[in-house]
Amino acid sequence: MKRLDAANDNDLKRQIARTRDIWQPRMGRDLNDEDARQILHSVTGFFGVLAEWRRAELLAAANDCAAPVEPNDGEVRHDR
To answer: Measured between alpha carbons, how far is 57 from 59 in angstroms, rounded to an integer?
Structure first.
């Protein structure tokens, strides 16, 4: 049976290789494993921050009781 950390190491190596394949032509130079690892870390962190901001926006909107209520298009209310 394969050790869990060995499986994670193989996955990380594949991710680093894929990152190098994608970014090396865009950078215009050869990237080593450390370059690719740093790019992978930065891009992952960037999208993590975006996801965190989105979750915060959704929570704030859900908890905002003072937010104006959007009118329903064409719906008539007869409350009288």
So the answer is: 5
Please give the DSSP secondary-structure letter assigned to residue 29: S
Tens-digit pLDDT profile for residues 7-57? 788 999 999 999 999 999 999 999 999 999 999 999 999 999 999 999 999
- Angstrom distance (rounded) from CA 35 to CA 57: 33
CB 30 within 8 A of CB 24: yes
Q: How far is CA 62 from the centre of its chain?
A: 21
Q: Which residue has the tokens 């970014």?
A: 23
Better-predicted residue by pLDDT, 33 or 63: 33
Cβ 36 vs Cβ 56: under 8 Å? no
